[in-house]
Amino acid sequence: MLNQYLGNYLLNHNLVDRDILISLLDENKKAHVKLGVLAIDSNLMTAKQVSEVHEMQKRFDKKFGELAVEKDYLKEADVDYLLNQQKLNSIQLSQLLIDHKVFSLEQLEEVLHAYRKENNFTDEQYRLMQKGDLNKILESMIQSQCDPLHIGKTQEYYDYVKLFLRNFVRFIDHQPLIADSNGKMFLEDAEDVIVASQEIYGTYNMVIYLIMKRETFIDFASHYSKMKINKRDELAEASVAEFLNLNNGLFTINMSEEGNPIMLKPPTILDEVDDLVLGSLIQIPIITGIGKLVLAIKPQ
Predict the structure, then answer these.
(1) pLDDT tens readout for residues 205-243
(2) Where do the structural domains in the chain lie, given as residue ranges?
(3) Angle, alpha carbons 153-169-172 (nearest 5°)
């Protein structure tokens, strides 16, 4: 996860070209072997068991290892072993920047020093980032969106965005990058956008918007459905709506378990978001291997 946030810094400061960065992150993705594949390779689980756990992840907001232990397919020691094997297969973005001669060692040292200084990271915070504990950093990003809207209580928005990013990694693309940009400008123009929307109501009331250009919408649908989709049609719309409904369904389960019952209205597909509405949203612009999109939340 450190790779994504260092990538954000490089991109937002124009230190590396967007296409080069996406290419490097894709290379990292290919080197990052999923736990299920490692479990099969290590003869700890069968393909059928791995598939079953993957399906369970659509119903429960839990990591692969947690669910595999609950099903008695793996022991805690097995999960630790697989996680260590996964780390051995991982390549840090900093190493890729050197290997591809984007930076010299001296330039990389300067960039990393400036990155840590700008974000006021202590050594401990940086170590937590390397371990993937990005909650505090993500909360800061969300807070900067909430303050101008005079939103006091923000925990549910943190929780929602973190859940969305986890599910995006699981089902769509391994390397989402949060961009430091206004959502409308981020998509370059408001024409030819498609919006998947769903209202959440109960203890918390909000409307979720997933905004993207037509090409990204089609690729999003293909990745989630694991089918070849070439145009915006009923299948494409149903696939994106299903992802949003799946994510929000997991959110309702999480909130209900905390004593905050909420419910969902059916998702809808729109062709635009009104400018006035867009200005009142918490906007999270995201860069991915399939294109740009904006996750937006409208507090009710």
Answers:
(1) 999 999 999 999 999 999 999 899 999 999 999 999 999
(2) 2-149, 155-299
(3) 115
Angle value at C-alpha 280, between 274 and 283, nearest 5 degrees: 95
From 3.30.700.30, 2.40.50.100, 3.30.70.260, 3.40.1550.10, which CATH number describes the 155-299 domain? Answer: 3.40.1550.10
Share of the chain above pLDDT 90, in %: 35
pLDDT of residue 95: 78
Q: Match 């009710």 to its residue by tokens.
A: 300
Can you read off the two tokens belonging to residue 158?
């943190």
Distance between CA atoms of residues 17 and 2, nearest Å: 19
* Distance of alpha carbon 197 from alpha carbon 273, whole angstroms: 10
Phi, psi (rounded to 5 degrees) for 18: -55, -45
The pLDDT of residue 35 is above 80? yes
